[in-house]
Recover the amino acids of this structure.
């Protein structure tokens, strides 16, 4: 039952995000900064869910819930790379919408291809560095080899909590990472939407307001879903140590969110729906 459910969700996630990537790359009308970031986000979603779900499916089939020490560190590293990339990409997409709505005449000049590619590369490098900092802290936990984590994957925060003593340096690194990849992206996204809202309020007609905000609706839905489930995971792990109370929000965070992203963008976006129809017609010939 669980195997079939998660396997189908995983396949739909991969297929849906691949369709978004194909739609963006095949349609010249979608070769814009907004859809460039969306295609990168789809790649990240595939990697993000592939970090945890295949191992979980193997565990369900084999009735085994063990993972090697090296395997756990590898999963932490890859999970954090894609998770941090998702946070930074959503922030970049918020900035993209801010420029498009608040500075429409200079939009293509500001969000030029060179800048967009540079921002993605900087985000990727920053995500790698962040994941390696977590792995270095986890490597210090050498006294534990057979421990139980109340989750279906090696959650970085739960692995680091295995340490009996948290040094001052470790705490500084945790706060630094939390500020860099949590506080600043959240603040940037909120500031972007604050400026967007103030610009929309100056538009005299309701039709103009709706048309301008409709380009932000999908992104705002994904932001609320991703950050909402992410906060739920860490609040749940801090408040309760029940495996069920931790595993449910974790599944929402790592499985359901990447699954829903393609549907949110395809159902609420006319350009994506048009590109998908063209793909379907081309495939049926």
């Amino acid at each position: 039952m669980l195997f079939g459910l998660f396997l189908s969700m995983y396949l739909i996630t991969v297929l849906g995000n691949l369709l978004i990537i194909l739609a963006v790359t095949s349609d010249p009308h979608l070769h814009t900064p907004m859809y460039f970031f969306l295609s990168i986000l789809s790649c990240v979603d595939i990697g993000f869910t592939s970090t945890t779900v295949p191992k979980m499916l193997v565990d369900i089939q084999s009735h085994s819930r063990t993972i090697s020490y090296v395997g756990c560190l590898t999963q932490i590293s890859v999970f954090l790379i894609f998770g941090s990339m998702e946070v930074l990409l959503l922030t970049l997409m918020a900035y993209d919408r801010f420029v498009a709505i608040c500075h429409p005449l200079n939009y293509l000049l500001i969000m030029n291809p060179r800048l967009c590619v540079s921002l993605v590369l900087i985000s990727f490098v920053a995500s790698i560095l962040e994941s390696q900092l977590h792995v270095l802290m986890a490597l210090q936990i050498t006294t534990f080899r057979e421990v139980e984590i109340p989750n279906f994957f090696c959650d970085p925060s739960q692995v680091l909590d295995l340490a009996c003593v948290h040094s001052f340096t470790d705490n500084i690194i945790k706060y630094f990472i939390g500020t860099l990849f949590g506080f600043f992206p959240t603040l940037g996204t909120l500031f972007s939407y604050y400026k967007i809202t103030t610009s929309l309020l100056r538009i005299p007609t309701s039709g103009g307001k709706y048309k301008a905000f409709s380009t932000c609706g999908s992104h705002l839905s994904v932001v609320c879903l991703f950050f909402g489930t992410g906060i739920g995971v860490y609040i749940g792990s801090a408040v309760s140590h029940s495996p069920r109370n931790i595993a449910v929000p974790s599944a929402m965070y790592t499985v359901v969110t990447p699954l829903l992203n393609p549907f949110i963008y395809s159902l609420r976006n006319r350009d994506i729906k048009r590109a998908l129809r063209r793909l379907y017609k081309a495939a049926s010939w």
About this structure: The first helix runs from residue 2 to 26. The CA atoms of residues 56 and 175 lie 30 Å apart.
